[in-house]
Fold this sequence. Notes:
Elements: E1 8-12, H1 15-18, E2 46-49, E3 55-58, E4 72-73, H2 89-103, E5 107-111, H3 114-117, H4 128-143, E6 147-153, H5 159-165, H6 172-188, E7 194-198, H7 203-206, H8 217-244, E8 249-255, E9 258-261, H9 266-289, H10 296-303, H11 311-319, E10 324-328, E11 332-335, E12 343-344, E13 351-352, E14 358-359, E15 365-366, H12 368-382, E16 386-390, H13 407-425, E17 430-436, E18 456-458, E19 470-472, H14 474-484
Parallel strand pairs: 1-5, 1-17, 5-6, 6-7, 7-8, 8-10, 9-11, 10-16, 16-17
Antiparallel strand pairs: 2-3, 2-4, 12-13, 14-15, 18-19
Helix pairs in contact: 6-8, 8-11, 12-13
Amino acid sequence: MGFKKDFLWGGATAANQVEGGYNQGGKGEIMHDYMTAGSTKKRRMITYINSDGTTGEATYAHGFEEIPKGAKVGAVEGYYYPNQKGIDFYNRYKEDIALFAEMGFKVFRMSISWARIFPKGIEEKPNQEGVDYYRSIFEELRKYNIEPLVTMHHFDTPLYIEEEFGGFVNRDVIDLFEKYGKFVLDEYHDVVKYWITFNEINTAVAFLDMFGLQDNNEVYQKGFQILHNEFVASARVVKHMHDNYPDLKVGNMICGLSSYPMTTDPEDIIANRYSLEQGLLYSGDVQVFGEYPIFAQRIWDKYNVKLETTEQDFIDLKNGTVDMYTFSYYSSSLVTTHEVDNLVGGNFSMGVENKYLKYSDWGWAHDPKGLRYFLEVLYDRYKIPLMIVENGLGAVDELVDGTVEDDYRIEYMADHIKEMKIAVEHGVDLIGYTSWGCIDLVSAGTGQMSKRYGFIYVDKDDEGNGTFNRYKKKSFDWYKKVIETNGEVV
Length: 490
Ligand code: BGP
């Protein structure tokens, strides 16, 4: 007993973090074009220009609330914007795909940038250059028998929609996304079999307390409305897929926030349960079961949330349930109601340090057993195929003699793959694994290049200097072996 014969091994990326080419090929602007670089200590900011020419910078939680009226998001002199060039995947995708093929990838997760297809998001006709660009990537992948797994929305709404419509909190954006989603399905259904609608949809509400917003009902009102609108937008596109292309498969995508109670105090047990319901199960339940869970009302009451909905929304949700549950998993955290002073960083969440685990340079816990636990809990609840579409270790790498001895990364991934195998042996229907940032890319959280996840090193630093040349790390050959042996040798 081990992984299925046709298990989908591969790697994952997102358009805004790899492509670059922000002003190439007729692409429209996205917020990330004007997002500064940060670090664990400094949040990423968005720069803007006021109508009188003065400039400023603002934080982003899920909207442009901090940006003054009349100001436009844009480049300001003296700032560096790491996503504008990404790792230049836009121009180098053939070289990169050849390297993925050399590792034996069966699947490659990537995203389509909405703004490359509809630059402002509102156009009647798509940008043909963008449409052709993605087709050529899919064909390149097919050449090597690599299945594309395509995310339609990986954090990058066209800037025009953010500025003029206020983003997904506005119901009109449901229709705009529906149009875009249906278009890419109609266009690429012959070359792309596996799809994801929204990346880490639950982060609209799951990471707010990290920014100290836990007592801000207004922010939660907005977060839950955004989520609702995204659920409906996703469901309508899923229905279109099922009606027209029954062979295709679509997943939701949930940020795998796994947590444990810190103590045996029943208050902690309940707090952890409620935190999982709000941050994790709320979103998964709607997308898998097609309706809001019973506990949703308790959560809405807590923040005094009044959702704007229509009767049709609930029909749409019911008709647009996903075929597979896909998620990211990096680490776990602890939840407590007690006073603590040992907080650590996490994937969009601050948690309390777990003394049984070790932590990465960015404060993320190394918890492979947590992945097994998570897989088993999820499968028990949802009973549909699961796919891990992000997992990996962000670490500082040193390039010496054209390679990186990244034993720490091999150890991290080997530990996680071993636990996946146990979960499979316990009956979990796990169908694939795409490690995050299979090639080094710009960190979403911090904008750093120095937080590297890849099997392939990219010569670019935190200020944007470098040749952008690619180098194989030690983990490159290791992962090749993992795939060759279908996860038997790790
Ligand atoms: C997830 C995102 C990715 C990715 C990853 C790692 O939340 O879906 O886009 O970047 O986390 O996070 P980071 O880049 O902050 O290390």
